[in-house]
Amino acid sequence: MVPRRDDSLPTIRCGMVGFGMIFDETYRPVFETRADHPLYTPATGPVAIQLAAVASRTGVRAARYLESAAGQRHPFANFAGPDAVQRLLESGVDVVCVATPDDRHFAPARAALEAGKHVLIEKPSVLSLAELDELTQLANQRGVLAKVVYHKLADPDHKKLRTLYHDGILQHVNNGYCSLLEPKSISGSQFAEWIRGRNPATYVAVHYLKLIDFSFGPTWSLHRITATGQRGLVGPADGPTWDSVQLQVVYQYPDGREAAFDIHTSWVTPENFPGYVEQEVQFRFDNAVWNAHQRKRGVEVTVENRTPGELKYTPNYHYNGTFLEPWGERTQRGYGIEVIERFFQEVAFVEYGGPAPERSQRLHQMRALTYNDLSADRRCVAIVQALEAILAKAASGVPGCVVKVNTPAGGLVLYEPGNVTPLVLYAPRV
Ligand SMILES: NC(=O)c1ccc[n+]([C@@H]2O[C@H](COP(=O)([O-])OP(=O)(O)OC[C@H]3O[C@@H](n4cnc5c(N)ncnc54)[C@H](O)[C@@H]3O)[C@@H](O)[C@H]2O)c1
């Protein structure tokens, strides 16, 4: 049964900047479902979510989608080219979602906030603390939300990890490792247009940086960051484009004890590797060890001529899956989708969750959610900025740098081996 659409409902009109893989995986299902099934919370009542406009580099994918059956049912304005974002902002959207490549988030996010739109940015939010400061200040000035997508925080296994830590069952994390390895098709074709000068850590290690910081970090402070990696497959061995990266982050507790985490990322794993996207974590506590392995937690399936290309050997249906529900409906659901819907609920709460004079209280309440608010992304962005600076130094012939945090010389300070003069990446405290 297709529910009746009610044009009198409060509606959040969304502009999408970037219309690539992640749009198709997580945003598209939200817009397709919510066009007919409004979001509902007791505070807001039903609120419709509508994809109203798209801005992308060429507009080709969006045009193809508009021609499809789903696109015909839910048409939107399709802007392409250098002024696409400006035209999208002028088209009357309320919210802007930014899903462009990782080094192209800042400009559209700033333009959207300047125009007074609520903003959701794919991780990594931005690549420097100066950019983060500018966006958070703008969001404050304009009275809107600025948030970032970290869907791994909504993974039930990670929620349980945090719950057990919070409840004192897992006590005092000391160290751990995380790895996320992507297949060669990601670097070779999916991201080929923008991959020059980039690395796989910035855009996937952040999942774990946030998981660690958000789950374990209310009292500790970030202390230092180091990184190294390999080149030669995606680009030349002496060039700026990285095949794989190993990042180490060290935190310090108030009593001086340290915690260290190693995060390994790659986008050159063999295409037919069973895990496809291979993900593993281990965290060691004073009294416990937590292991989680993507391939060992769930389904393993082989279908002649269909795995591992069209279907994956070890799919994660909790993240995202298409289902025939027991009650007959076709749905697409999972925590990757849930986390986007949650953002729209937060916008709906600000705009429709009570009387207009109390809007600023509701805004304050939603900003205080540290799992996704941009103002709570400081330590992750600091690590990303340090990582990018360390890799740039290595590519220019100076490997082995370390970035220290909140030193007398500045908030984020890079030290080269054998050079006594530090380079201040960010002067204020992190
Ligand atoms: N949440 C996740 O797990 C997850 C997974 C994959 C990607 N991502 C993030 O999503 C973002 C996009 O990744 P993707 O895989 O969809 O990439 P993609 O290469 O498939 O798509 C990028 C899109 O951005 C558009 N674009 C590029 N430059 C633009 C510009 N200057 N202005 C407007 N549009 C522009 C392209 O036209 C394309 O539509 C990245 O930040 C990435 O880190 C998140």
Summarize the structure.
The chain is of the alpha/beta class and 430 residues long. The protein is 32% helix and 27% strand.
Estimate the helix proportion, in percent: 25-40%
Average pLDDT figure? 94
- Rg is 22 Å
Structural class: alpha/beta
Order of helices and strands: EHEEHHEHEHEHEHEHHEEEEEEEHHHEEE
Describe this structure in words.
There is one protein chain. Helix 1 (21-34) packs across helix 10 (335-352), helix 7 runs parallel beside helix 9 and helix 10 (335-352) packs antiparallel against helix 11. It is built from twelve helices and 18 strands. Strand 16 (402-407) and strand 17 (410-415) form a beta hairpin. The strands form three sheets. A nine-stranded mixed sheet has the order 13-12-8-11-10-9-16-17-18. Strands 1, 2, 3, 4, 5, 6 and 7 form a seven-stranded mixed sheet that branches. It has a two-stranded antiparallel ribbon with strand order 14-15. The protein folds into two domains: 11-150 and 328-368, Rossmann fold, CATH 3.40.50.720; 156-317 and 379-426, Dihydrodipicolinate Reductase, domain 2. It has helices at 21-34, 60-67, 69-73, 84-90, 106-114, 129-142, 156-166, 184-190, 200-216, 335-352, 359-367, 378-395; strands at residues 11-17, 39-41, 45-56, 77-80, 95-98, 118-122, 146-149, 173-183, 221-230, 244-252, 258-269, 278-285, 289-293, 321-324, 330-333, 402-407, 410-415, 423-426. The chain has 430 residues and is an alpha/beta fold. The structure holds nicotinamide-adenine-dinucleotide.
